[in-house]
Structures are given as C-alpha cells and as structure tokens.
Amino acid sequence: MAGSSFIFNSKRIPAAFIASVILFLLTQAVIVHAPGFWKFCYFFSYPSSGDKLRMESQLRLMPADSTVKKVFLIGSSEVREDYDADLLNKVFAEKGMSFYNFGLSGYGSPLEMLYVKSEIAAHKPDVVVYMPYIGSFYPEGDFDVINTLRSYFHPSMIPYLQRHLGSASVFKKEMAVIYLDHLWSQMSPLYKYRDQMQLILTASARNTLGLERRAEPLRFAYEVNQHPTYFVAEILKEKGAKFQKSAMTGLNQELFAHLADGFREKGIGLIVVSGPPNPLIKETFAKELNDEYQIFLTAQAKKRGFVFVPEVQLPVFDIKEFIDFTHFNVVGRTRFTRYFAEVFAAVLRK
Amino acid sequence: MLFNSLQFLLFFLVVYGLYLVLPHRKQNRMLLVASCVFYGAWDWRFLSLIFISAGIDYWCALRIESSADKKIRKIFVTLSIVTNLGILGFFKYYDFFISSLQALLANFGVVFEPRLLHVVLPVGISFYTFQAMSYTLDVYRRRLNAARDFPDFMLYVTFFPQLVAGPIERASHLLPQVLSPRKVTLENFYSGSYLIFWGLFQKVFIADNLAKIVEPIFDAPGPYNGGQVLVGMYAFAFQILCDFSGYSNIARGLGKLMGFDIMVNFNLPYFSMNPQDFWRRWHISLSTWLKDYLYIPLGGNRLGTLLTYRNLMLVMVLGGLWHGAKWTFVVWGAYHGLLLIAHRLALPWIEKIPHPKTKLDVYARIIAKMVGMFHLVSLGWIFFRAESLTQAGEMLNALFLNFSITPEIYFAGLSFLFFAGILIAVQCWQYVLADLTVILRAPVWFRAAFYTLCYYLIVIFGVTNGRQFIYFQF
Lengths: 350, 474
Known about the structure:
The complex is a heterodimer. Chain A is an alpha/beta fold.
C-alpha cells in the first residue's frame, strides 16, 4: 500500500467543507421558497432565453386558491408570442379563470412538452391548451435532438429516444453531460437557471444604476417585423424542404398520444390548436406534409377525445400581422387572442 | 484536457485512485503513463517530440557526468541546449523570424518571399524545454547528479500537473521527489484540495468573466476611448493573473494530493513596490530560471553599470519573446527591461528621500508605491494583450489623450470590481498577514461561509464552456 491511507483511518473531518455544502443547500432551499426571489427573477428575466425560469416563476407564484380555474398555454415560442395572457385574463376574469403562458423557445414538440408536463404536473391545471406547429412533428433539416435535450431533458424521455432513435442515442458522450446537468439541476435550482441568473442580476444592476429602466416584466421577445427580403431569402434557401419527416416524427407522434392520454386520465381538459401560419411559410415545405400533420391531429382528437382546432378553422392572417414565419406581432397577437377567447368560450359552453 | 473539464475530473479520479494503492515505483510508472495520456489528449503527435527532447537531455546529462574533460562536458551541454532551443525555435519562431526578415528586407526594396511553414505549436513546449534544459545545465554545473532511470527522468519532464503551463520546476527540486517515496498526508490532501478549489475559482469565476470585459475592448478595431482602455487594462491585469496563478494553484494542488511539493509561482505580484520586487513575485519559476541560466552567466551585475543594463534588457527581451512570436511580446519585455533599468538609475535618489515619520506616512508610502507599480505593470499589459504594436499605440494614445467615461464604461468598471473584488480582498489579507494560506487558517465558521459564497459565485457566474488557459498558447 502506497504512502499512508489517511483517508480511511483519519479522525479529522473536513468540518468547513461539510458545513459549507450544508449551508449552500440550506440557503438555496430558503431562497427558492421565498416568493420575492421568484418575483425578482420574473421581473428581470428575458423572454426567449429565460422561458424556463419564467415558467417556474409563474408556477411558484401561483395563488393557492382552488376556486380559480387554471388554464396553461403550452407550446413553443409561438405560444409565448401569439397569446396575450393578460388579455385572456381580463376577458375571463368573471368566469373565475386564470391563464398562464408557458410558451418555451424551441419547437414545441411533444418531446419538449414531456419536460413541461414534469414541471406543471404538481400544479394541477384544469385545462391545457397546446399549440404545436408543423415543425413540432416534422423537424427542420438541421435539427439535432441533443440541442433540444440540453434545454429540455427529463429522464422519462429515455425509453422513447431509445425506441425511435436507437440505443446509441442515449449513450452518446453528449448525453452524459445532459444527465449530469439534470442531476445537478435537481440539487441546485440556482445551477438549473445559472445562465438566466447572470442576465437577471445584470439587468437588475443596470436598472439600479439607471442604465436601463424596466417598469414591468418583459412579456414578448420580438417587436420588429422582419424585412420582406428576409422571407424571400429564406424561401429560396429552404427550396421547399424546410420541414421533413424523420424518426423524430414517429417519436413525437407516440409522445403526443402519451401526453393526451395522461391529461385525460388526470381529468385535465386538453385543447389543441394548430399554430396559425404565416402564408409565406407554405412556400418552404410540401403541402402533403401539412395535410398529413393535420390528418394526424384530427384522428388523435377523435380517438382521444380532446378538442382540436385545425388550421382550416383558423381565421386567415395577413403577412403584415407576423414578425417572421411563425410569430405574430402585436396586431396579429391581439386578433388571434380574441379569436381564441371566442373558441375557448364556446368550448366552455359545451 | 483542461483542468476545468469533466474529462480531466474523470481522468484524475482514476489516476488518484491508482496512485493511492500502488507502491512507489509503480506509482511513478503509472504517473508517466498518465502524463503521456494527458499530453496525448492535446495532440498525440507531439508526444514523440517530448520523448526525443528528454531522451537527448537524459543521454547528454549522463555523458556530462561521466566525463572529466571540460571540452567534452561542454559539447554535450551545448548539444542539449541546441536541441531544446532548436525545437523551440523551429516550432515557435520560424514563421515569425522569416516574416520579420521579409518585412525588414522589403524596407530596403529587397523582395523576399519565403515559404511559411505554419507550424502547429505543441502545447507546453516553452515550459518543458526550459525545464529539461535546467536539468542538463545543473548537471553540467555539478549541482545535480544525473538521473539513472529514464522513466523517472521522463516523469520529471512530463509530470502532468505542471506539464503544459508550469511552474517550470528545477530538477534539484522535483527530481528527488520523483525518486523518493512520497507521503500522502491529510494536511496535504486538505491544502491540495483548497488550492485546486481556489485555482478553479480564479479561473472560472474571475479570469473567464473578466475576459468578457477585455475581449470587446481589445478585439475591437478602434478608435478607442481612454476610459474603455483603462477598464480593459485593469480587467486584463487581473484576468491574466487569475488565469495563470489559477492554473499554477491547480497544478500545486494536484501535486500536493500526491505528496509532491510544486513551487509557488505567484506571490502577490500586484503588491510589489518596484520592478525588481515584481519579478520576484510574478511567474517566479520563469524569472528565477532566466536569472540563474541567462542573467548570471551573462555577468549579472558584476561587470559594471552599462553591462548590467545590457544584461537586464537582454534577459527581459528574451523573456518577452519566450511568451510568443510577436513584436508586442518583445516590446513588453523591453518595457520591463526599461523599468528595471530606470529603477536602478533612480535608486540613489530614492534612498535620499527622508524616512516617513508616522505610521500613517509609512502606510501611505507603501500604498503609493504599490499603486504606482501596479499601474506601471498594467500599462505593459496593453502591449502583451494587443494584437499589434499599432493597436497598442492607439490604445495608449486614447488612454492619455482621449479619456472619457460613458455609462457603459462605468458599468464595465463596476463589473470588473465585482469579479475582481473578492480576489483583491483575499490578497490584501494574505499580504497583511504575509501568509498565502490565510484562508486555511481561518476559523471553521469563516471558511464555511467563504466557501459557500464561492459556490454561489461559481454556480451563477462560473464560465463552464472550457475556455483555454492563456498560458497554453506559450
């Protein structure tokens, strides 16, 4: 045996180290139970980069009042930008309903919604409104599932990944980092949101020093419409193959069915709304793909008993109402939100 | 394989686990293999280069020791020096000297278009060549016996904690530790763990965050604002200190865990009061190497004033060039040479200044000297960091002639204080108590609170995308 095996027979314990670890975990536990912390985070966070943190902040700050019906809007950034939750809350205030916008940057795929489900489950929503778009099921050419899992991983995804993408996909080197990251995130909420914490603290410092003024939380990430040349360039670049069928399509279709069944079993109402597209986006992919996507959701709605609002039922939106191919600007958002309010009211009446 | 990477953590856990259970001789063999794996992870092609360089040094040292003939001893020490400097010169300076020659000849209208080789610079070459050279030089000077076991000698050259960015260990200090059984004590384990922790904190919290302030300033094409240059200068001064001393601390910590004592490479350099003091505190392994193997053999300060100045300038210019094949490093070295000369010139006048009468005067004078010296050193960093002499000139011009503070510069300054503040506080404490291990001697409650604060800062602000250490490029 080399040297001395002091580690095994020493009586001196590293008290400062042990105390510091306990202090670190305890102080975090105190911090994350303080409503003020989540209010601070939500106020100074940024839509898009801070979506996950903003979702948890809203969940943590949710009042415990069980008489108010909770409606969670979930999906991609399209949900974040297209729904005005404040407007919906005004419209349905007298009906005792509260709307929460949990749109997260990404593709809004059922794979990502599995992560969302793990986060919202404990808060028992009454209704979930899910708004996918074609990219949620038919990924873009440069799609890499690793990038999605880096942001939205949950262990329950592993069997689905294995089944549809092969066993190698869950044993990749990059997945080891994702698993470790998930483990640390469970132990330390500050670690989970470390990237956003930096931005939040910087925004707070700049606000305090008068370098920026923030009167209320930022709600939307995109404000300026893309220049028309952007759309021309994108259409030329995509050559009609922006979205494609792949192994991810099968994975997301299976996960969608699993999610829908899960909501039904828990007595949570599900409304699926087909994401309103910019007319120009139709020029970037094959029409047959969109038809297949709509047929799939229609069939699932019949089989699983949820409300589906297909694309044909949506009002026609002008390209001027969009920031880009998928996100509304303030004009489009207001019109779409009012339309959705009517649909929701109609569903309530049934 | 960066120290601040998951890959290195897994590597070291395996190495350390084996280290604890193996006997001495097998420990050495295992460490040699581990060091080869560590270096090979950077670029396996250059493993052969280290073996060739170290092999020649090992053989030369044996020939030197076995011969009583001065001429033969000189031949072999020259062979060792030429091999090491030849390898270093080829890989590091070939393109630089050829391009510089081309530019010089162009000034005289001579067209010279040589083929540049764009040689890949092997990681750590500046460090291990100097470390290996010091061995043969010490054997030549009869300060050291030649090693008789090639694998043990190879371990001295390639010991992974200090292989790629120092400290440049002397054979008389490290080789006996390789050759003798080492004791792994609890105290070493704790102090080693603390050094690793503090080194990682310096790197991922301080240095890499200060880099985010430095890069937009130094990587911008100009024109520059003086306030912006000032903040960038301060931020780089602490970035390079924390990056390099952080690495050295991790190296020392890893060594301590295994019972090795690796030399201190930084001793509160920004608390120095004059240029000579600075070079006794900054990159100590390099400055002592240059003193022992270049400055003193050139005559040191024994050959009169002018030759002393010549020796100082030559050593500092070569020290600057050691850092990299760019004229900015040469100018940086020359600048420090000028500071050392100026200090010597000013000494007679300095000694005539009346002694301070009160304690306040004493402290005020000390602080004034430190602040003054810090600023002189920081001005030099502008050359060190700048992409070209032109950029350095423009920045200095802005600093002195185009100075203003905008809200954004003010915010960058505050950010600098936020990231560097904790280091400044700790180092003030270390300086006042003249003890680099003050944190380890603090009460348990203080250390617990300090570590907790560091955890929060690392978790929230730590840069974890594996930014390379600055000195790896040397």
